[in-house]
Each structure stands twice: as structure tokens, then as C-alpha cells.
Request: fold
Amino acid sequence: MSIKENVLVNKSFGVAQKLGKSILLPIAILPVAGLFLGISAALTNGAVLKAYPILASPGLQIFLQILNAIGKSVFDALPLIFAVRYCGRACKK
Reply:
């Protein structure tokens, strides 16, 4: 391997490493957003509310709607989160 090839490999490895570091945060928030969506969707379902009437309390339903809105907003803004995080990391020296 010549010196030029070695430099090219090192530069490409650096770019790949920068990309990997930049997507850590968006990947880390996905499970939490998924849990928010899943739990809120399961506990606001009509069949579940009929089976467990205690879950139909207005306060709990409002809380579950907020969880649902948080999860949906994260998934809706996912491309933007990736883009901002990558640009922020790529511009940082």
C-alpha cells in the first residue's frame, strides 16, 4: 500500500467515524419514542378501555395523548434530527 492510498484510507475512515458519531443521538432516542407511541396507543384503544375501565380516567388519557404526541413528533421530525445532527457534527472541528 502506497502512502497516497494510506492517506486516502485514513481520510475515508475519519469521514465514516464522523458519520457514525453524528447518528448516535438520533438512534438513541428512537426506542424511547417508540415506547411512548406503543404504550399510548395500547392504553387508549377502545377494546382496552372497555376491558379495564380504570384506564378511562380523563387525567390518564390526557397524559397518554401527550405521550403519543411526543412519540409522533419525534418520528415526524426524524429526517430533520438526522440532518441537523450530521451538519452540526460535520461542521465541528
About this structure: The two ends are 29 Å apart (CA to CA). The first helix runs from residue 3 to 22. The mean pLDDT is 86.
